[in-house]
Amino acid sequence: MINLVLLLKPNIFNSQMISTNALILRVSDITENVVHIDTLQEPEWLENLPELWSEGSEIKLISKVGIDLNVTRVLNEVTVTGNLRLTIETPCFRCVEAVKIELSPLVSLVLTSDDQLRGEEQDLECETYQGDEVDLNNYLREQVAMALPVKVVCDEICKGLCTICGANLNNDDCDCERDQIDPRFAVLKDIKI
Ligand SMILES: [Zn+2]
Ligand SMILES: [Zn+2]
Hints:
Largest sheet: 8 strands, mixed
Number of strands: 10
Bound molecules: zinc ion
Shape: elongated
Oligomer: single chain
Structural class: mainly beta
Number of domains: 2
């Protein structure tokens, strides 16, 4: 994983947009010109994906992570906007067939200098950076975590698995006599009318 710290050369100081693939930026290098981050991270960048998911650990990344961001700074406030792109795979909640999902979480972050906040009332909503360095890595992983889906199904009409033989009912119609009666009403079955 290569995350070079962005170092501006004086001869590109006047350009309108500075491009980089770095995710760790030196704050003093971000002028009011836009810094454009355009990079593809290897899957290892998100190797903690299962820990980020609240629905279990059976989730994997099956693509690189595209990162396309614009970074600007006004005084001590760094604004990061853009989006991420990745494809994940996870079992269907009902039939356990693998489901691929493309995600493109939007990123909209405002980071304020930790030094500036010190002594003032700390705003809990406000993300901070320390010193002259903004390390976007963990902020971006958090954005991925927030974009992960809950209760993934392969199709809204997925029939799931037979509770007796385990057959995938989308493909097979097994002969098991599954009790379709809602257990709350099971008692009614024995009432003779
Ligand atoms: Zn399914
Ligand atoms: Zn069955």
